[in-house]
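Service request form, structural biology core

Requester: graduate student, group of Dr. S.
Request type: structure prediction, single chain
Budget code: on file
Notes: please return the result as structure tokens.

Sequence provided:
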Amino acid sequence: MKKSFLLTISLLFLSIVVFSQEVSVTKTKLALIFSPQFQAFKPDKSYLDGSTNSGLHWGVCSDFYFAENYAIRTGVFYHLFQQDFKFATRDGIAAIPVMRDNEIVEIENGTTVNYKLRYFDIPIGIKLQTDEVSSMVFFVDLGFNNMINVNATGTSNDAAKTLDSDNTKKDFSFYHLGFHAGIGAEYPLFGETQLTASLNYMSGIGDVTNESSAKREADKVRLNAFEIKIGIIF
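Core staff response, request fulfilled:
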């Protein structure tokens, strides 16, 4: 089921790319984007508790217009996520295995681990915008996020300091698929330069963790984030 779902999503990505190549691109916009985030990783297990934290991402966004108010949107972004996971106490369980570099170590139940995650993101989607209204253009941004895990570290609050900014990349999936939806506006500054701002919601579709590496009980953790995107269009 999971493989079929991922295959369907992959075919959708391919269709969008092929479509963007076949249609006539009428104009292209390039933007530099900076975005603070408020994210929460939502586990499906009661023993794993995630909190809400802030993060950042920045990168380059490109809009390829195939009609006056419609564009294929893609780009390259770098995400900085920070998340606290509390491995809550369960009866009969004294410790929980986690990854540290290439080895499995155990942390005490009740321990909170602060994870710092780094991802490259290649989003692809569609932008739908209005005609100009009082010098402003309003738009909707819908699409998918292809996120590649490039680094992860963890620090635990147990007395033994089992994790102390150690490499925990193997505790997380290499690839994470998500979707996003946002609304925003563009305002002219001078010449072809414009200011853009939008409010976006991003949610993971797959599991951000890789609990099989540490041989933990199977779980599913989804990434949810609100983003305030601010940028300059050239």
